[in-house]
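User: Fold this; tokens only.

Assistant: Input:
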Amino acid sequence: MTSTATQPAAVHAPALRPQRRPWRRIVLHGIVLLGGIAMVYPLLWMVASAFKPESDIFSDPGLLPATFTTENFTQGWDALGIPFSTFFLNSFVIAAISVLGNLLSCSLAAYAFARLDFRFKKTLFAAMLATLMLPFHVTLVPQYILFQSIDWTNTYFPLVVPKFLAVDAFFIFLMVQFMRGLPRTLDDAATVDGCGPFGVFWRIILPLMRPALAVAAIFTFIWTWNDFLGPLLYISDRELYTAPIALNAFLDSTGASSWGPMFAMSILSILPLFLVFLFAQKHLINGIATTGLK
């Protein structure tokens, strides 16, 4: 009885990917590093200038102050005759109300487009998307005439009331895309249990929209806090100034500008944005990754 020896199957080693040349990686990392330095340097220069005497801000371009001082912070805090905390509070109030208005109105509008059936739905949705291509400056004058006619100038109403009317098409589209990824069987089950359209939205859809709501809240807060043109246009009373308008008051086109105090208050003004991004970064990335990119 003869036994046939089994030949081992030929094993083909996987082809090795050609490795990049070390000098190419060094060059790429160097370019990225230089780009990062170019973007961060203005911020670092502003921070360094806030701790310099005003006479050394433009004469000494270095990042390390030759003379370290904190007088810019103490002078800038009360430079406008009002504590700068008032301007921070005004900005926070407007940003908080704007976040609440956008989350409520945009989520309701998005629910209507994503889940409800009504006449001219596609036409209205296309018109809503078309407003994304409409520059803000086109509607600036008509809005100002409207708000002036109802005596809303020098108040916060022109800045916060439109947020409750779903005027930010970007967030509506963002939430519509997220809702379209939710199974409609959830709506059907809630309807069988006796929920109406608003009940389905409030009890089922809204709790599942946390990633999209987090993105809308973060961007609304950042954009509202940084808004300069809106408060400049509608607010004239100094006690109602927001932080960006108060910073602009340090500049004087006819005389000497207070650069040191302005840089010091600018650092304090960006701290809330930095903290928001720092603590909400996870929610921001998760919301963008799961919204509209499926």
